User: Which sequence fits this backbone?
């Protein structure tokens, strides 16, 4: 099984509550340990957690071989990833038909011990982003987006400078809830509409934004009509728009 979702959504915390057989594949030491212990890992009966699996593509062919060797043994491996399988070609090529995908979102209102819809809507659902009572909003969100733009998106293949990515994020925040118009955003950024569309694929793959297809009884029209762009977390949206309090939110057009 693969548990996917945005960075800092709580994937590792949830997974480590299920097993202590844990490997962080972004860490060279854990990669070496997994390499040395691979036969014992495959033969063991304990759930094996492979965190940030996209950081070490070499593990996917090994997983395929281990799974195919004992197809009747289910629930042996739990992969965690901060990028969608659409951007993880190794998953689609190596583990198709062998892997179940589950998405973990940031905290939902129904999951909160003391639901406060006004605060939740303002700060979003990231556990460290202020929804649990800390005063980290919006500083945590701004740092989060800056690090995503500077490190993660380039590592996942986005061919743009961090400054361009941050401008794109802000333009997408302005376009939140509106019909997606790649040409208009491209003109503002000095980019072609095809480039903007390709960049948006990475934002969707990082679980930052989503395109909501139009609803119409005609299935053909759903495919050709323009979708609407939405940010998946309201806290990130408000941080990009400079909304830091409920008063700021109410005066936003």
Assistant:
């Amino acid at each position: 099984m693969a548990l996917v979702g945005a960075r800092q959504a709580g994937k590792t915390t949830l997974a480590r509550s299920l097993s202590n057989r844990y490997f962080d594949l972004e860490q060279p030491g854990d990669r070496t340990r997994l390499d040395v212990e691979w036969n014992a890992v495959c033969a063991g009966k304990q759930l094996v957690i492979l965190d940030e699996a996209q950081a070490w593509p070499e593990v996917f062919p090994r997983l395929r071989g281990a799974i195919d060797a004992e197809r009747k043994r289910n629930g042996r491996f739990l992969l965690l990833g901060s990028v969608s399988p659409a951007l993880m070609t190794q998953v689609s090529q190596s583990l198709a038909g062998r892997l179940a995908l589950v998405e973990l979102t940031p905290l939902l209102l129904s999951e909160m011990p003391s639901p406060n819809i006004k605060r939740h809507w303002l700060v979003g659902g990231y556990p460290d982003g202020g929804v649990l009572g800390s005063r980290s909003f919006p500083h945590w969100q701004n740092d989060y987006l800056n690090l995503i733009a500077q490190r993660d998106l380039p590592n996942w293949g986005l061919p743009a400078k961090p400054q361009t990515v941050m401008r794109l994020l802000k333009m997408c925040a302005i376009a939140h809830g509106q019909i997606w118009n790649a040409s208009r955003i491209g003109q503002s950024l000095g980019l072609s509409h095809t480039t903007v569309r390709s960049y948006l694929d990475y934002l969707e793959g990082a679980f930052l934004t989503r395109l909501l297809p139009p609803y119409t009884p005609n299935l053909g029209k759903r495919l050709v009509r323009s979708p609407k762009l939405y940010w998946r977390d309201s806290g990130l949206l408000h941080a990009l728009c400079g909304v830091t309090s409920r008063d700021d939110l109410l005066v936003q057009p």
Notes: The mean pLDDT is 90. The chain has two domains: 2-103, 109-251. The domain at 2-103 is CATH 3.40.50.300 (Rossmann fold).
